[in-house]
Amino acid sequence: MTKKSSKSLLAGFGRGLGVGLxxxxxxxxxxxxxxxxxxxxxDPGQSDxxxxxxxxxxxxxxxxxxxxxxxxxxxxxxxxxxxPSSLIVALRDLHDATEPLPYVKLLPQLQLIxxxxxxxxxxxxxxxxxxxxxxxxxxxxxxxxxxxxxxxxGLADTIDTDFDAVVKMLTVARWLRSGRELDAWIQTLREQLxxxxxxxxEAIATMTMREQLEADSSHSYCxxxxxxxxxxxxxxxxxxxxxxxxxxxxxxxxxxxxxSRRNALAQAMLDLFFKELYAWGVLQTDPNLxxxxxxxxxxxxxxxxxxxxxxxxxxxxxxxEDFLDALGRTIAAGQAQDRSTLINALIDLGCxxxxxxxxxxxxxxxxxxxxxEPLRPPEELPSEYLDDQGRYCWAESNLMRRVAxxxxxSVKHKHxxxxxxxxxxxxxxxxxxxxxxxxxxxxxNGHAIAQSHIxxxxxSKHGK
Length: 464
Fold this sequence. Notes:
By secondary structure, this protein is of the alpha+beta class. Helices cover 53% and strands 9% of the residues. It contains 15 helices and ten strands. The longest helix has 37 residues, at 3-39. The protein is globular.
């Protein structure tokens, strides 16, 4: 082992020590509390003690900052089938924003950029997150504005150690149980975390998305764009991208926009989801609202369009055709509210087995039917969520709250079937897409958008 790697491991051990000790205190007490609550017929994951212990653990993660915050966020995103509800709720309060690292500590990495001397870099960060911070820069000769996404020094060397520390703590605290499904989930999270720090892969994914968007002539709602990658200013730890101005979807300014403009952005987001799956076969899987910007059209120019700007392609997945085929049939059955066909499609998707308990099948089908509600034919949409023109009122439907409540109930079911990794990713991404749409408070029906992509795919595969 090299001197450098030894220091990294020791640093990781030291950083994880506080988290590990937090687990030792919680373990036995949580087990006893769980037994008491089960005996009383109560949900052990929702007791006051469990809630307080979950908050204490998350507070410890927050203090450690760096990769610990990212690990916690990923577990909140993909762990609802393995972690108690009290911990999931607490983990969702982890904030990505953190204290920036002084610019002088980033200089050694920046000086490895081949064209470092060609850049004027603002030493004040534009943003600081758990794994990296962003600085604006300008190319001296051309005046082009860039952003440099700079990975924190030594992060890649300690990220596996940090991950192991969190998993160990959760195990000691008895928040995790051993098992094959759990092992597969932990491995998925580890792989996902490693992708987050692979900037060369992210650069390729960003360039590919930009090329696909530029070649796509079907933007009928609004413009969609991705940043340009400046390879000559990028390294394994620094990603140089074009500066993309815009506002986030939760900006108060958007509430003043006309319904037609908000509808166009929302429809573009839904269309993009299906286009990524069925036209390009690669999905950006992180539903974080911060991964999108909205750039208003030029004032007074009636010909220009608002632009949906896509950011951060560190987490992308390509799907096999068999999976896409089964997913298409699952969504089509959900649109038609055909429960029998839906269950068969879920079996083909790997989310249910042919021997699954009938109650598990019905529970999973209920969840899918609820999640896919906005994609039903207009005449099948719940009338209480429609306006006087028969359009679905996304924000007023409280869809995400209803879906979350149903998911929480499904997990408690004794015959609950753990979804496949790919289905969990799709479901989480779709809820992220729907959340983005709801933030715009639009009114439109999603059936035609989904149908155009899925029908075309199934027709090409089955000749229907």
